[in-house]
Amino acid sequence: MNNEIVKKYLAKLNINENIQTIEDISNLMCLHQKTFPFSSLKVLLKKEISLNLEDIYDSLIEKKQGAYCFEHNKLFYEVLKELGFDVDFYLARVVNNTDNEVPQTHRFTLLNFENEKYLIDVGIGFRSPCIPVKFTKEFSFSHLGFSYRVIKEDNVYLLQSKKEDKIFTMTKFDLNRCYESDFELAHFYSHKHSNAIFVNNLVLSLINEKEIRSLRNNEYFKIYENYQEKSTFNCFDEFKSILSSDFNISFSDEELKLLYNKYSRI
Known about the structure:
The protein is built from 9 helices and 13 strands. With 266 residues, the chain is α+β, with helices and mostly antiparallel strands.
């Protein structure tokens, strides 16, 4: 079944050639992140979110309802595994450049390739790298002026981005073994707990070659290499149009109105 899902996934992205190199994986990451949006909408609508691979594929790709880290990164992990890459999965803490004590509520993938370690993360929203990020002190260019690295400090690994010499730490993690049950537990917190970010905020993002599209509640950002634009929407039709045309998200009008009425004024 995984083999069939991977075949359908690659077909959706119009990928026919073999994926064998780091550059091939980077290309796949870029295609994934400009096609399938990061989204908290299912969480806000209180939909049951399954981590079964078939359900992830159906929700994200067939129904076009977006996904968050536990879905995006599981799908991408299974794709790489089916393609023959040496991959494993782990949990991280999303710290967003703070020293806050936060739970491990983020899934990512570790790639072992030609005696080097790389972090792969297509599920951290608008800050997601579009390359496998090497474990090294040197930053590697990804997209739109953003570079990334993974370093170790005080026995903890940090995923960091850099743009215009400003360094931003997104996640902290160790490499203690994880199991699918750990993801189920973290996933339950992330889409059910009253304090969880995605339970309280409308979040959407897509990354393409020209811009990063990032929507949070009623603020819509388009982030370019050298500047960004910020706007808000003034009516439901505008909100619906942005979700459909800019993010390729598909929900019923009734569901979209619920989201608009509650979160567009936060």
